[in-house]
Design brief:
With 222 residues, the protein is mainly beta. It has three helices and 18 strands. It folds into two domains: 86 residues, 3 Solenoid (Pectate Lyase C-like), CATH 2.160.20.120; 109 residues, no CATH class. Helix content is 8%, strand content 52%. The strands form two sheets. It has a nine-stranded mixed β-sheet. Strands 5-6-2-8-10-12-14-16-18 form a nine-stranded mixed β-sheet.
Length: 222
């Protein structure tokens, strides 16, 4: 069986469980492991084939109306399994573009991203990290609550400047949420932030947006 595997495929050790096209993602669970999306001409959902079949088969994935639904049980009694899952990338997603991510209790990475618009919604205990190839973005929209984290940075694959620019950033965050766009300049900023939440901005973003209007771009959420 091993000899029949195509070793030219970088992710040959992942089983393809779905290959229908999608543009949007709704993911529930998965914050005990690592899930990564990468742009690709063809859409697919792949699961690490070393994973125990009972756990692997508990993942539910299907596509409806251009939306990929990905569900994890997020309940694992075996601490050894949880430790191993936390250090592994067990699910990889591929597709031409991913316009919207809606995640609950999940840990997710967008890698090698080239698109200029991103929409994110997070809840529960979630973390989303974006490693982009794109220096110049049109828009970023974030709605996050509970205990969520969103981090934007240039891909470590690139050797150039780590700085980014956004034409427009909109963020509505509550709970113990943190949004980090600290390496970006931002032309237009629309923020609604609860007292317990935080957004990390560069000095240039502060001077160029909030600093010029005495902070009127920030509205507190009670």
């Amino acid at each position: 069986m091993y000899d029949k595997v195509d070793k030219t495929d970088t992710y040959w050790n992942y089983n393809n469980i779905l290959d229908k096209p999608y543009k949007y993602l709704k993911i529930t669970g998965g914050n005990v492991t690592n899930i990564i999306y990468q742009p690709s001409p063809h859409s697919s959902v792949r699961v690490l084939n070393y994973w125990q079949s009972a756990i692997r088969d508990s993942i539910k994935a299907y596509v409806s109306n251009d939306t990929l639904y990905l569900n994890f049980p997020n309940k694992y009694d075996n601490q050894g399994d949880k430790y191993w899952m936390g250090g592994s990338v067990l699910v990889r997603l591929f597709g031409p573009e991913l316009l919207y991510v809606d995640g609950t209790d999940t840990k997710f990475e967008l890698q090698k991203l080239k698109q200029k618009n991103v929409n994110i919604k997070l809840s529960g205990r979630s973390r989303l990290e974006v490693e982009t190839y794109q220096h110049d973005f049109d828009s970023l929209s974030v709605a996050a609550q509970d205990s969520s984290q969103v981090v934007f940075e240039m891909s470590p694959d690139l050797n150039g400047s780590p700085l980014m620019s956004f034409r427009h950033v909109s963020a509505s965050i509550t709970g113990y949420t943190v949004v980090d766009v600290g390496r970006a300049s931002i032309k237009d900023l629309d923020l609604k932030i609860a007292d317990t939440s935080a957004i990390i901005l560069s000095g240039q973003a502060w001077r160029g947006t909030l600093g010029n209007n005495n902070g009127s771009g920030v509205l507190p959420i009670n």
